[in-house]
Design brief:
The structure holds two protein chains of two kinds. By secondary structure, chain A is mostly helical. Helix content of chain A is 72%, strand content 0%. Chain B is of the alpha/beta class. The chains are: A mainly alpha, B alpha/beta.
Amino acid sequence: MTFAERVAPSPWRQLFVNAAVGLPIGLLALLALASLLTPLLWPYAPGQPLWGQDLLAPGFAHGHWLGTDAIGRDMLARCMAGIGVSLAIGLGAGALALAIGGIVGGAAGYFGGWVDELLMRLNDLLSSLPLMLIAILLIALFEPSMWLLILVVGGFGSLDAARILRAEARRLRQTEFMLASQLQGATSFAQWRHHLLPNLAPVALTALGTVVPQAILVESFLAFLGLGPSERVGSLGTLLAEGVQDLQWAPWTLWVPALALALVLLGFGLAGDALRERLRLLTGSST
Amino acid sequence: MSAPLLQVRGLRIGLPGREDCIVDGLDLFVAAGESVGLVGASGAGKSLIARALVGLLPSGASVRAGSVCWRGQVLAGAADLQRVRGRGIAYVFQDAASSLHPLRRVGAQLRECLRVHAPQLDRRQMSERIDTALAEVGLDGARRWLDAWPHELSGGQRQRVMLALTLLPEPALLIADEPTSALDPVLARRVCDLLADAARRRNMGLLLISHDLPRVAEYCRRVYQLRDGRASLRIDDDAPHPAAAVLPSQTTSFGKDACIEARGLSLSHAARWRWPWQAAPAHTLDRVSIALAPGQRLGVVGSSGSGKSTLARGLLGLMPARAGQVRWFDQALERLDRATLRRWRRRVQLVFQDPFRSLDPMQRVDHMLLEALDYADPPLPRSERLPAMRAALVDVGLDHGALGRYPGQFSGGQRQRLAIARALATQPQVLICDEATSALDHETQDQILALLDQLARERQLALLFISHDLGAVARLCDSMLVLDAGRVVETGVPAKLLVHPESDALRALVDALPRAPARIQA
């Protein structure tokens, strides 16, 4: 038999290369790119107060397209920088959540038995702690920084990720292709490398669709409370907190970052939903 | 001629994200009281067609063109379909076990069906109708069945309840989508007989959908073959009874230089621990002894639940022996330490039943073969791996263009070839095939059997072929063993056993073979 004719795309291509998944991911990539390029292309810096140009409404005449805040900082520059910080925290926390969740959930699902019981009961225990209070406590104890935020939010995200990935690993453990590999003499390590991790990956990426927006929201909320990263440029949450103070005379300082936040969350939400749907079509399962 | 009961013209069904249609211009018709078969390979779109006829396509799939006429009128829209479903067209699903409501007694489900479709009946008439329907499908003593929960019934009984349920509204056409594929051949014959009887008695049209051409050909006047999305009529022809076509072959003696052996092996799924007053549970496999030397081929047959797959699991060391032992290459399996067992595993390989589940969907073919080559002993030098992978594919009749593809891009038969290539890549001496052909359609079965035959001969494999397909066993194996309820009830040369079966178990299996007025033409 020869295979010159039509070659169907790989599972990865089928998962990602389609409009429903591609458009939201494209939107997010565009936002990230814009955030990276703004310092090069835009004349104003995010943290630079300009005297005499405070509280300008959005417009094109004065050069500050999205207006300025109470001390004359350019909103477009601040917003783009905020998107960058929020994305970095969200993706960082998401990656951390998947790394921890993948190892813990994978081990629990793969080995089963007492390993599963131990890890999952521990997971239940940690899940029952109030996330917000712990986060506020930790940030109050240590110097608030981007890394601490990623650690806290990602750590909590890993609990959910572990639960999702454990269920998938458990299913995979029962599959015949895993048995086939065992029957050929594969070690546990080889089974993880060849079969478990590649099959967990799409599910993990789908889980990213819920973990990342959650991380961004938590970070925005903390920043809103004044517990944001202490870096000179704030995240979108910092911008929101400041915008609320000037709401009465400069509403754009609130709705510009609010819109940006909504756009980011929408991107992740749509991508996650579309991925889940594609995955369901691909595997025929209802995860 | 009056309008046929059901007429399908130019039906095209597509899946999302695919330009081409799975079903591409299907034409067929069923007249009143006529039995028509539709056969095709797995994945050819048989079930999609069945579902499209009653408007129950799975989400995503859609009818792109064509029409379905019911008694001369085009079915369009939900209202038409709702009217036709049940009393017009009834549908028996492939998996009857999951089609019954698990939390309601059988009687309640039957009564509900009547209340919807024949509300004019009073209670007495209803229970009469139900009793008749149950008797018709061979479930006598209706009371007992009415009070039963679905989980208390066996697979065959559930299938019959489902059948009674679909027959209750007295449909004019019954669409049966692989009604027997989950059943063993003895049960499958009974269910098919029931379907044919019911159709004849009620002058009901029957559209029987299956991958099993000989079986369909036995029951249907016309059989359509589905290929490349289109249906063509297979013309009637006489084919010999499969058992009669069996060629005689020589006997081989057991015992010498066995590379895999079971001595008085007993296995059980029940928990080992029990209360002192509990009776010892029956073993799933009871004192089975077999031995296979290189080049020998043993077929293991038996109806479902007879312990065939358990035997395979036991021989592979996946289940601890309750009594007796398994020996590989003259070493007792339980005496091997874990590392040695792992290194030895490559010598005894398994080919699974369903190639759609035994291949990793995320693993490209080249990676799959590389992984298998990894376990070869001694390991292959890097430079020889690509030629070895290509050779492995060529050996199973595939082109090396397959290397860059994922399992999802192959048909069922090709996948089974890949599974065989993977199993053989570790250079095993023993190959165990657990129903390796029964998930495939008829033609593909033939090809895979020929392939196994050739490979086993070339490599002098010890082959253990587990199947409920007597024809396949007779073709491939030089000795045969019949399992019934975990015990060996008969052994011998297939050709002789199939003509003169001694045991009840084998006789039932032989009787269940499709008696082919099989007007099959290649």
